[in-house]
Write a structure and sequence with these properties.
2 copies of one chain form a homodimer. The first copy, chain A, is α+β, with helices and mostly antiparallel strands. Helix content of chain A is about 30%, strand content about 25%. The first copy, chain A, has a 6-stranded mixed beta sheet. A 4-stranded antiparallel beta sheet of chain A has the order 1-2-3-4, with no helix packed on it. In chain A, strands 7-10-8-9 form a 4-stranded mixed beta sheet. In chain A, strand 3 and strand 4 form a beta hairpin. In chain A, helix 2 runs parallel beside helix 5 and helix 4 (about 105-120) runs parallel beside helix 8 (about 245-255). The interface between A and B is large, with 74 and 75 residues. Strand 7 (about 85-95) of chain A pairs antiparallel with strand 6 of chain B.
Chain lengths: ~375, ~375
């Protein structure tokens, strides 16, 4: 007779039956046998496994895959390019720095590691095409978990028309995913959205709603208990941000020249535009499009989450009022004007309330290393 | 009166005078004051510092810099491209996995982190153009050390005509440098050197000499004591490998279609060609171009270092004998035929001695995670 025990984990139902460890994953409709550490499979075995997953995900209808010459498995990846300008961006996603497995399940770690990079290409108005993926991980990591992580990454890659074409794996003390995304401009004009193109008098606008991701993070950490529907919406905003790729391209086509994605929080990211454009920014806090579920459930903390929570991966851009208003009619994505670029207080973001009085925010955006950060 | 103490470190002479810590660096002809941890400078301060260093290194005579549209400081880097095919490769360089600061000084860590990537572009016969650099490091790291590391990287980038155009920084438990190098093909024909193009009967050849880097590593770890001149040569081979970029391009122009760079060791890397080309490989060990100083100083260990030591970053390639012999007359770089691709023992590397008898090697190449590795 089989003997064993089971318990519920963040990923699913864990069974220990005789010598077998089995994890039932209702979300993915499958079970994995936890039987192999990365150390048992070895580096080349792991690379083979991930290469096969990437290869199986190829979609011959997608330009990125059509133009690929060499994918995973050689010294470098190679592809044809007919675009006039190439784009490259890199971001690291590090365990217990950028994410915690106690809050973000493996599949969503993979999704988000790619999403933060696609969001940077979106903020240039570009077309993401290829990704190279570096994985560093403890050798005791279960191979099954890594395949789940990779599946999350591949799922987003498919939806965004991106081909995963290379990478490397190493052992390390903590799980780290480092992704470089290569992209190109939309057409031969080589136009891009930069941080430095803002002009005094430009309106400042954002896509979508703000604060949902950081509210979702608070919920996942088990802090506030709110209604089930709101919980699901806000968790989803944190776990599955979809980069505003189409919107970035639309902004550029309509004549916008300045944008950044909101990763660290509106105030922090707008500060980058201010410094790069050598202007000030004045934000009317009452205009901030706080996510309705955040406004409804986080009362006096809602505005802080929207202004400095980060991880919403919405686009923040500047342009003339008539251009912003024209764009509003061309996309189902909400577009909200929240302030104006100014000649005074260069390099600074100033918050004002509805009466024009200064508004104090307790918390800045996220910055690594700072000992003073909360 | 000033009071203090001093001692000699791997980097230079360390002085502690009153409250000041000063490091004299005779190699770099300067002193740095150890007065600021990364945590005190902050993420954006560190990015600014490194961005300025990269910016100051720009060379307007270099195509990579001439074609750059946006470098460090925006959401992504952007550049013009008139090449028909793009190349991308990534490699991680992780403290206590790929390098130890007890053996490799900071500047050489920076040099090697880039070199291993340029070597992959060399093994494709490509032209390296741009690099994006991810740094993950403990927040207690001295900023001065990071600038030295970055200087080593910039020095190689300059020599190779590569522009550092982006990156990110994060905190982490161990120092990690993750670099993606972007390159292009030499001309519009889109030819590249792959691992899968070998044919039965092709000669197997290598550039340069083998074993020097791993012999240098043994010396740096303090193991063997040999003559000063040999010590300097072998240490240099380990600390400053120069990727065979020009040679890779020459191979391709002369009609070679198959190559890999020797990073893990000749046997291990040739194994990749065997598996990708679905052929066997027969190596005559007496033909191996063991570095003269290794042969002179490492007696019976010399051949093992040359066959499986790794880190030489020479190119291993296959082609018809007459093509290999023609190339030999076109470059000052030594080119040595060491064996032949075979139809039998597919996927395997076989070593034979001068009489054609099987030759046993004790040690394989380097593979991460494997519990069985020595």
């Amino acid at each position: 007779m089989a003997r064993g025990f089971f318990y519920l984990t963040a990923l699913g139902l864990y069974f220990n039956i005789d010598k077998y460890q089995i994890l039932l994953l209702p979300r993915y409709g499958r079970a994995i046998i936890l039987a192999m550490k990365v150390s048992e499979l070895g580096e080349f075995g792991l690379i083979d496994l991930l290469a096969k997953m990437a290869h199986r995900s190829r979609d011959k209808q997608t330009p990125a895959w059509q133009q690929l010459i060499i994918g995973i498995g050689d010294d470098a990846a190679a592809w044809h390019s007919d675009a006039a300008a190439q784009l490259a961006t890199v971001d690291s996603f590090i365990q217990d720095v950028h994410f915690s497995l106690a809050v973000t399940p493996w599949e969503e770690v993979g999704w988000k590691a790619l999403a933060i990079n696609l969001s940077d290409i979106a903020a240039m108005g570009g077309v993401p095409r290829y990704a190279v993926v570096s994985l560093a991980l403890p050798e005791t990591t279960e191979v099954g978990y890594i395949t789940i992580l990779y599946r999350g990454m591949i799922e987003l890659a498919k939806q965004a028309g991106v081909a995963i074409v290379g990478g490397d794996t190493s052992s390390a003390a903590q799980l780290m995913i480092n992704i470089t995304v290569l992209g190109s401009t939309q057409d031969e004009k080589e136009n891009i959205l930069t941080r430095s193109g803002a002009r005094a008098g430009d309106k400042i606008a954002v896509t979508g709603y703000l604060g949902a991701a950081s509210a979702g993070w608070e919920i996942l950490r088990g802090k506030p208990r709110i209604k089930a529907k709101a919980t699901a919406t806000l968790k989803e905003a944190f776990l599955h941000p979809f980069p505003r790729i189409a919107e970035g391209q639309l902004l550029l086509k309509q004549g916008i020249r300045t944008a950044i994605d909101i990763s660290d929080g509106l105030c922090s990211d707008l500060g980058h535009i201010c410094r790069a454009s050598r202007l000030g920014a004045r934000i009317e806090v009452d205009r901030i499009p706080v996510h309705p579920e955040v406004r409804a459930n986080f009362s006096n903390k809602a505005l802080e989450l929207a202004l400095s929570g980060g991880e919403d991966y919405e686009l923040l851009f500047t342009g003339r009022a008539e251009v912003v208003n024209r764009i509003r009619g061309l996309t189902p994505c909400p577009i909200t004007i929240v302030g104006e670029m100014t000649l005074d207080k260069r390099g600074q973001v100033t918050l004002v309330d509805s009466r024009g009085s200064p508004f104090e925010l307790s918390k800045g955006g996220w910055e690594h290393f700072r000992e003073t950060q909360s």
